[in-house]
């Protein structure tokens, strides 16, 4: 069975840097990661892109970028970063939908990682914090 570290690293998370931000507390990390599926910024981004609301799309994308950076979710960070600066500049681009689909796929991979971490033998995701 893979360790917590090995699971994170298999998804491209820099374990050492990320755990430094979380003071080495894997339980706390998983608790925060567990809130990701409840975060509405991915849906808000999709909705704003559908409506052509670049300002709201930027706000959602920028929030996702910060969250991904803090959690060490490099795949999400890179996917959303491709959108943040063009949205900030108010550039209407035709590739936002395809960039969003890439981002959505990365979210699904991270959800799989989260479930693996929660199933990790002996790991109590919400205990002790």
Structure description:
The chain is mainly alpha-helical and 129 residues long. The longest helix is centred in the C-terminal third of the chain and has 24 residues, at 96-119. It has helices at 4-10, 15-21, 26-33, 41-51, 54-71, 74-88, 96-119.
Short description:
With 129 residues, this protein is an all-alpha fold. 70% of the residues lie in helices and 0% in strands. The chain contains 7 helices and no strands.
Q: Let me know the average pLDDT.
A: 91
Using the alpha-carbon principal axes, give the shape: elongated
Strand content: under 5%
Through-space gap between termini: 25 Å
Secondary structure layout:
Blueprint: H1 4-10, H2 15-21, H3 26-33, H4 41-51, H5 54-71, H6 74-88, H7 96-119
Task: Give short descriptive properties of this protein.
7 helices; elongated
């Amino acid at each position: 069975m893979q360790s917590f570290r090995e699971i994170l690293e298999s998804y491209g998370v820099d374990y050492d840097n990320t755990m430094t931000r979380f003071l080495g507390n894997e339980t706390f990390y998983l608790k925060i990661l567990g809130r990701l599926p409840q975060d509405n910024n991915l849906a808000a981004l999709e909705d704003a892109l559908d409506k052509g609301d670049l300002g709201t799309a930027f706000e959602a994308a920028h929030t996702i970028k910060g969250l991904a950076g803090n959690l060490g979710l490099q795949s999400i960070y890179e996917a959303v970063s491709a959108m943040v600066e063009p949205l900030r500049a108010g550039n209407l681009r035709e590739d936002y939908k395809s960039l969003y689909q890439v981002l959505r796929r990365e979210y699904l991979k991270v959800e799989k990682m989260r479930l693996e971490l929660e199933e990790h033998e002996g790991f109590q995701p919400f205990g002790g914090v």
